[in-house]
Design goal:
Chain lengths: 536, 450, 278, 381
């Protein structure tokens, strides 16, 4: 890899001169023969030769070089049967729109059969990235400069270190300067130079740690000790970060459990209905998201946001259908509702299988939800889960408001306390039942929308969560939303804390057994409903 | 209450009796007797409902397609082929029951079926007892060779071993995380790989990380961050994934979100094919690897024809093909060839005839049926592309013959399988020259003596 | 028939209900002591340091407005509810706070609920059979046989509660009054030392009430009976000693006339009662 | 009537006094005999011949029927809706499976005299302690009853003592079987993980791959079902049975008349678990494999459906339900796989909503209508 970089350097100088040249005179396009030759060199089988060809392209002062390399990196640089090199603009389906690699003019659609892509492997991918990074170091675009600076960590060799010094000096962007300094420091530390070690003290970047590790067993005792000390400090830092990370994992798993369970907490806790189809209502929410993304191709973000209300509506409507169609006939027979709704869950699953497909569906994660929020080099929090966590809390708060502050909430509580009394006070109990169940189901739909960002969107989505959600509700105390929240989050954290040493399976088992025993001790959960109401 | 019941009993029970008898009669009358001019019956034993339907239903369609094509080409021995489809519903005991139904009741001439190892294990005794033919199209853990089963999927030495060699020689990986779902295929494969890495490449204990997760595991945060730390020690690291089915989507999502790039820590998967990818947004996964014996992106006309036929058969422009489908393609043609060769569909005749039969595969080469009932396959390494396809970056210079018994497991090191006369043995022990079992027996006696 | 005869007859009728020897020690008179008992459901004191003693063989009526804590008191005695403070003794030997419902029941405390609860799926006969005092551990119950003697006892009680005709009907179909009777019958089968009877005559006709009154008064003497009742007429007809509960503690105690003249009582209970009736 | 039925005789032989049991046993043995004759006497190919496959199928149904009876005992008479009976069934099955594995001996693919194949290729040094003794039939068969019984005892003791009932109990029984499923999936557990136990050879010296043995197993299962039925019948017709019903309908009241309800619940729960275990043990050699999927909550709920369909609190209803549903399953998954789950799901809904007393209830209802019988309806159960 270093080899490519040094070579990259040479071209870099050329490039910069080329740029300055362009500044004065009109761009002198080198004849396409040369370009064609450069590209043809790529169309070989051996990856080593391809490596050479890439270097050649770098060294050429052709300003299309970067585009070619990028296309090569993306696997969009291909050769048509007639020998022309083309850039594939969209490689989905069987016929692809392409453009000429040299002239950039569109050549319409071409069949896969007539195209040979110029394959690369991870080694070349690395080479290309580094090369592009070096080029980008001089790019006017600050983002490119930053990413290239990040890229160079641990990739610096003596030669490059020299050239970087002035770049650091001139770099006006702090991030770029910081990264490049680190990059050089890493190189120096690996060389066993004190300066490097000092510069790296407290840096949490893994490359820095590796470098210090090497420095720690350098023959110079002073350097070695300094490195060892630095490492010790870093290890401390890492421990803390690891703890925070586990906590975050726990919370995020917990938030999923809460989302899945909170709807049950309403239908089960408030109405006393054991809705085994709850999981399938979540599944419907997830499929709504998928549907939305199909309807709005190209803007997954918008689709996702729209599918929040949509998912709620769909699930709520199905919920109402279930309530009217089945549950209303099973008043006060919770065990029967369990069986009936279980049947419904089977039907819904099979419905999805036959109507849509037994295969999982692709739900795209929008840009702003993918990747992670970097706290420091050792701790970064995945964005999608952070959004889900936030979403869960918002949903919870919303439900609390509805239950505490609205007319519906009041009526719901009245009906659950004493049906007959509520009736006589003119509350339409049936209507309340419908609303409650619709609400619970709708929330399940919301959970589904969130889950579509974390896991499979397939017919079995629901089954994987139903038991866990019941556990959460029972553990938290039936009919108590706070209980559900606390139970969900704490179970999530317990699980994630156990996992590293117990393993995923055992952790899950331990949690289940723990809940079973807990229910024996406190049959009504963490926050039991008090008074006579609970007796019923 | 009791009084009521007593009153109603006689009638109720007599109905119950009639029901039972009716059942008996139906069961009995259901069985047909095969005549010579009847169509040749091809049993298809793939789950069409339940959790495995995702993977298996396409295989059922594949076999049906192959049968159609065969019939259009005039059938076999002048007889038409007829598919007999049953649904074992992803339920292992039901697999055994259905297999029995196919063989005892429907009296099919051959069965194409099964995906999971457990379903194969469940069916095995039935097929052996009733002397049927089973073509098993999925890559599996090996350690088995039955007289009545033909393994057209990859054995570990046709997938795992070459893949690891690619990682070591071409990518220069020095550190391996073996991540798998907790069932027999990953367990065995990983044990083989561990032994292989240590013995053949001197990889140190601490450079190998092994982790197992339950089926459909959906929360990968911890494990992925473990992998990340494992890879931060300065040595080039790769993940060898034997994660099964549904668990893959959340796994790859988590990888992408925790920013593990294929260029830093490539993941090479043995159970992720085009079909699994069709459920994932592959853009963040570009460059991750998979090892198979076939990829949809294979650039041969045979393959393009197969794909076109498949898309036509399913009527779905987006339909993808994958490795087990090719395995059925090969298996079916081998069986057809063997039937022609034997001039009959009689199981014993076909069993003898099929050994040595060679048919073209879809990647431009040929597959031959070995005496151990495994076949020769090329091994391809593909990199995930952003269009859900694999780009083939490496392949074995020649085809590799499937190995029923791994050379890296103490129990089976000295076992071989050869179903030709005179040996006709699935677990022949080359050390004590007897059929049946390894030297493990003696070892165990020694162990007990202690 | 003449009153005398009927009285005689009644004695004969009720002979079979002579309580079995129960371990309870009543040498010191009272069969039930409740001392400074307090129960609170999250803050609300349903029973507020209640003191009550029932003598052996006494018939005691307990009255009081709704929410006075009558039912809660019974819950405490039968072990359904545990008091927050205080002590409850059955005789001078058994601390009821250390026992669960079945133990208390087998000690000889029988209870009839406000809302009659019988085993609806079982026949009247079976209801009585289950209630019958017997060895109620698992295997004896499993191997229990229906002897003639047991049948006679059940028949006698059926006779008493006038359900002989319906003996093999599921209890579920009985009228409200009949259920009341069946439940009393179950009490009789238990042969308890202490009967707790919660609103026995709710939903009964005049005649039924009369029979109930006779029954309860007939029981008194052999067994101690505690009756909680709203119906003043009924209470007057049977009461020897009356306790008035108010807000979870004893407001007044004494003969019917004493309490009904007690100004406090008149104010909180009878007073309001008269207003209602007025 | 009632008094005659329970008139003074030994409790276990009481059921023979009832026509219910007489008829049931009559039909059952008639069916056994019929199938046996049709299988042995009628020649191959004759339309009335019952082939080994069908015999095997019925054998499976009968073991399911026994399982259903066990569930009906706790659900129908005790009101405990157990969503975990699959666990007891599976444990019984595993006990039997372990015995059968040990019987394979050196005939395993690796020819190891002691270790089952899966242990050999997962490189186990020696047999885990809990596998010892299973080479002895008596021990294994004892375990078939004791292992599930013990689990039920511990679980039930905890649950009933703290008065966990109704929905809560249902949910934690579900959690129980779910946890067990995960546990048995783990290969470290030493029960063969996902593959479970398979490739059985012989049972008590009989070759499991011969039709004769299969017929024998079929008959044995039939007999076991008869015995289980009699036992349950004896329990429910005894005074104890009436205490159960009393508990089901008014638990508190039962306490107030002096019964230690939790002990009765525990007793019946354990008996039921043992029957379930027995059913599992008879099931395994007939289907030739036992693996953790038998623990799946879905299966346990399905059992409940059989009972619900047949009719709760009748015992014979459970048998009808189990056989009907599974026969339907065999037919459906054969002819129209996709429709099966729809049918099953619809069954759940219709049965619970439209005929809460199941087929048995329906039949007796029709009967009542026909005879224009004025007897009142049975109390809702």
């Amino acid at each position: 890899m270093r080899r490519f970089l040094s070579l990259g350097l040479l071209c870099l100088v050329l490039l910069s001169t080329a740029m300055t040249a362009q500044a004065q005179s009109d761009p002198s396009t080198p004849d396409d023969q040369a370009a064609l030759a450069l590209l043809s060199a790529l169309d070989v089988n051996s990856y080593r030769d391809k490596g050479e060809a890439i270097t050649a392209i770098l060294q050429s002062d052709d300003e299309r070089a970067r585009d070619w390399l990028q296309a090569l990196l993306d696997g969009r640089l291909q050769r048509a049967d007639d020998g022309r090199f083309v850039l594939v603009l969209d490689n989905r389906g069987r016929d692809w729109p392409v453009a000429d690699a040299l002239t950039k003019e569109s050549l319409g659609d071409m069949s896969r059969r007539d195209l040979d892509r110029i394959g690369i492997n991870n080694a070349l991918r690395n080479q290309l990235r580094s090369a592009i990074a070096v080029v980008d170091l001089y790019s006017p675009n600050v983002e490119r400069r930053r990413s290239s600076a990040d890229r160079l960590l641990g990739e610096v060799d003596g030669e490059l270190a020299e050239t970087l010094e002035p770049v650091i000096a001139e770099a006006e962007d702090d991030h770029v300067r910081m990264r490049l300094t680190q990059a050089v420091a890493i190189y120096r530390a690996e060389q066993g130079e004190m300066a490097g070690v000092e510069a790296l003290t407290g840096s949490l970047h893994p490359r820095a740690r590796v470098a210090l590790g090497r420095a720690a067993n350098s023959d110079d005792p002073i350097v070695a000790d300094a490195a060892a000390a630095a490492l010790a400090g870093i290890e401390q830092q890492l421990k803390i970060n690891r703890g925070l990370e586990t906590l975050y994992f726990g919370l995020s798993l917990g938030s999923v459990l809460v989302l899945a369970a909170i709807g049950l907490a309403i239908t089960f806790g408030v109405m006393g209905v054991i809705n085994m189809a709850h999981g399938e209502l979540m599944m419907l929410g997830a499929y709504t998201t998928w549907m939305m993304q199909q309807l709005l191709p190209g803007q997954p973000g918008l689709a996702l946001i729209l599918s929040i209300p949509a998912g709620f509506m769909v699930a709520a409507l199905v919920g109402i259908a279930i309530e009217r169609g089945v549950i209303q006939f099973l008043k006060g027979r919770p065990l029967e509702t369990l069986l009936a709704t279980f049947g419904i869950s089977l039907i819904l699953q099979q419905l999805v299988r036959t109507v849509i497909s037994p295969l999982n569906r692709t739900v795209v994660t929008p840009e702003w939800m993918s990747g992670s929020l970097v706290i420091n080099d050792a701790l970064s929090l995945t964005l999608n889960r952070m959004y889900v966590l936030g979403f869960a809390l918002v949903v919870f708060a919303g439900l609390m408001l509805i239950m505490r502050r609205t007319r519906l909430g009041l009526e719901v509580r009245a009906v659950t306390q004493n049906r007959a009394m509520a009736r006589s006070m003119g509350i339409r109990a049936t209507r309340v039942d419908i609303m409650t169940f619709a609400l619970g189901s709708g929330v399940a739909g919301l959970a589904g929308v969130a889950l579509s960002q974390l896991t499979n969107v397939g017919p079995n989505l629901g089954q994987n969560y139903i038991i866990d959600s019941f556990m959460v509700v029972v553990f938290g105390g039936v009919g108590n939303l706070w209980g559900t929240l606390v139970a969900g989050l704490s179970l999530g954290i317990i699980n994630q804390v156990l996992e590293p040493w117990a393993g995923a399976v055992l952790a899950k088992i331990i949690v289940l057994v723990f809940i079973i025993l807990f229910i024996q001790k406190r049959p009504r959960g963490l926050f039991p409903q008090k008074g006579r109401a609970a007796e019923g | 209450m009791t009084t009521l019941q007593r009153k109603t009993h006689p009638r109720t029970l007599s109905r119950f009796a009639t029901a039972l008898i009716a059942a008996a009669v139906m069961g009995a009358s259901a069985q047909a007797v095969a005549q010579e001019d009847d169509p040749i019956k091809v049993g298809i034993l793939h789950s069409l409902s339940g959790t495995m339907a995702i993977s298996e239903s396409t295989l059922k369609d594949t076999v049906e397609m192959l049968i159609e094509q065969q019939n259009e080409a005039g059938g076999l021995l002048g007889r038409q082929l007829e598919a007999v489809v049953v649904d074992p519903a992803s339920n292992w005991p039901l697999f055994a029951e259905r297999a029995r139904e196919l063989l005892a009741q429907e009296e099919v001439d051959v069965i194409f079926g099964n995906w999971t190892s457990v379903s194969r294990k469940a069916v095995l005794p039935v097929v052996e007892e009733l002397n049927g033919l089973l073509f098993y199209p999925v890559q599996y853990e090996g350690e088995e060779s039955s007289e009545n089963v033909f393994y057209t999927g990859a054995a570990p030495n046709q997938q795992a071993i070459p893949a690891v060699e690619y990682l070591i020689n071409e990518v220069g990986i020095e550190r391996f995380a073996l991540i798998g779902t907790d069932y027999v295929y990953p367990r065995t494969t990983n044990r083989i790989l561990e032994a292989f890495l240590k013995d053949e490449h001197g990889v140190a204990e601490e450079d190998i990380m092994v982790n197992y997760t339950p089926f459909g595991h959906s929360d990968w945060q911890n494990i992925v961050s473990e992998i990340r730390r494992f890879g931060e020690e300065g040595k080039p690291t790769a993940v060898i994934s034997t994660i099964n089915g549904d668990a893959n989507v959340p796994f790859y999502r988590e990888l992408a979100n925790q920013g593990i790039d294929a260029a830093d820590i490539p993941v090479i998967a043995f159970s992720v094919g085009e079909q699994e990818l069709s459920g994932i947004d592959t853009a963040p996964l570009v460059g991750h690897l998979a090892a198979w014996n076939y990829f949809m992106s294979v650039d041969t006309d045979a393959n393009y024809d197969f794909i076109d036929a498949w898309i036509e058969h399913t009527g779905d422009e987006e339909a993808v093909t994958n490795d087990p489908m090719e395995a059925h393609y090969i298996g079916f043609n081998m069986w057809a060839e063997a039937v022609r060769k034997a001039g009959t569909t009689d199981v014993d005749a076909v069993k003898d005839a099929i050994i040595g039969v060679t048919v073209p595969n879809l990647s431009g080469g040929y597959a031959a049926m070995m005496p151990n009932h495994h076949i020769t396959k090329p091994v391809l390494i593909g990199e995930v592309q952003d269009n859900g396809q694999f780009d083939i970056v490496w392949q074995t210079p020649s085809t590799v013959a499937g190995d029923a018994w791994s050379d890296y497991l103490p129990g089976s090191r000295d076992l071989i399988a050869d179903w030709r006369k005179p040996m006709e043995c699935g677990n022949f022990n080359v050390v004590n020259g007897s059929c049946g079992g390894s030297t493990a027996a003696e070892e165990a006696e020694a162990a007990l003596a202690e | 028939m003449s009153l005398l005869q009927s009285l005689k007859a009644r004695d004969r009728v009720f002979e079979f209900m002579a309580p079995e020897a129960s371990p309870v020690d009543v040498r010191h008179g009272p069969i039930l002591y409740m001392e400074d008992v307090t129960v609170s459901f999250d803050g609300f004191k349903a029973i507020n340091n209640l003191n009550l003693t029932i003598d052996d063989g006494e018939l005691r009526c307990i009255i009081g407005p709704n929410g006075a804590g009558k039912t809660t008191m019974m819950d405490i005695i039968t072990g359904k509810t545990r008091p927050t403070e205080g002590s409850v003794w059955f005789g001078s030997r058994h601390n009821l706070l250390h026992m669960n419902e079945p133990e208390i029941a087998s000690l000889g405390i029988g209870r009839k609920f406000q809302k009659p609860t019988v085993f609806e799926a079982l026949s009247v006969f079976e209801n009585l059979e289950l209630a019958m005092a017997a060895d109620k551990r698992i295997f004896p119950t499993l191997t229990a046989r229906m002897t003639g003697e047991i049948k006679d006892r059940i028949d006698d009680v059926l006779e008493t509660i006038g359900l002989t005709a319906l003996r093999f009907q599921p209890a579920g179909i009985l009228s409200h009054g009949q259920k009341q009777w069946l439940e009393i019958g179950m009490l009789l089968m238990q042969r308890p030392r202490l009967l707790l009877v919660d609103e026995p005559v709710a939903g009964m006709t005049e005649q039924e009430m009369e029979r109930t009154a006779e029954l309860l008064t007939g029981l008194a003497g052999k067994q101690s009976v505690v009756v909680v009742e709203h119906d003043m007429g009924f209470v007057r007809s049977i009461a020897r000693k009356v306790t008035v509960l108010h807000q979870g503690s004893v407001l007044a105690e004494g003969s019917m006339d004493q309490v009904s003249n007690d100004p406090k009582v008149v104010e909180v209970y009878l007073g309001s009662d008269e207003e209602e009736s007025a | 009537m009632m008094t005659q039925a329970t008139s003074s005789q030994f409790w276990l032989t009481r059921p023979f006094g009832e026509r219910a049991t007489q008829t049931f046993l009559g039909v059952l043995f008639a069916a056994l005999l019929l199938v046996t004759v049709l299988h042995l006497a009628v020649p191959q190919g004759h339309p009335l011949h019952v082939n080994a496959y069908t015999v095997n199928l019925f054998g499976k149904y009968l073991s399911y029927a026994l399982l259903a009876v066990a569930v009906d005992l706790v659900w129908g008479y005790l009101g405990i809706l157990s969503l975990g009976h699959g666990a007891f069934f599976a444990i019984g099955g595993y006990a039997m499976g372990m015995y059968l594995m040990r019987q394979i001996g050196e005939r395993g693919t690796y020819g190891h005299p002691v270790l089952p194949d899966f242990m050999v290729f997962l490189n186990w040094e020696s047999l885990p302690w809990y596998w010892h003794g299973f080479d002895m039939a008596w021990f294994a068969f004892a375990m078939v009853l004791l292992a599930p019984g013990l689990l039920a005892l511990v679980f039930g003791f905890l649950a009933f003592r703290s008065r966990v009932t109704g929905v809560y109990l249902s949910i934690i029984t579900q959690a129980l079987t779910f946890a067990l499923m995960l546990a048995f999936f783990r290969n470290e557990m030493g029960f063969g993980g996902n593959n479970g136990l398979t490739d059985f050879r012989e049972l008590l010296g009989f070759n499991l791959r011969s039709d004769a043995t299969r017929l024998g197993l079929f008959i044995a299962t039939g007999v076991a079902l008869a015995l289980g039925y009699i036992l349950c019948r004896a329990i429910v017709t005894s005074k104890l049975g009436r205490v159960c019903v009393a508990t089901r309908d008014a638990e508190a009241r039962t306490r107030f008349i002096g019964y230690r309800v939790e002990r009765f619940q525990l007793f019946v729960f354990v008996v039921s678990a043992m029957l379930a275990g027995l059913a599992g043990a008879l099931y395994v050699p007939q289907v030739g494999i036992i693996n953790p999927s038998e623990f799946s909550p879905l299966f346990s709920i399905e059992i409940v459906l059989w009972v619900a369909l047949g009719g709760r609190a009748t015992l014979y209803g459970a048998v009808i339900g189990a056989i009907l549903v599974n026969y339907a399953k065999t037919i459906f998954t054969g002819i129209m796989p996709d429709a099966w789950l729809f049918a099953l799901g619809a069954l759940f809904v219709l049965v619970t909503v439209l005929l809460p007393k199941g087929v048995a209830g329906l039949l007796s209802h029709l009967k009542r209508r026909k005879e224009d019988d004025h007897l009142p309806k049975e109390a809702a159960v």
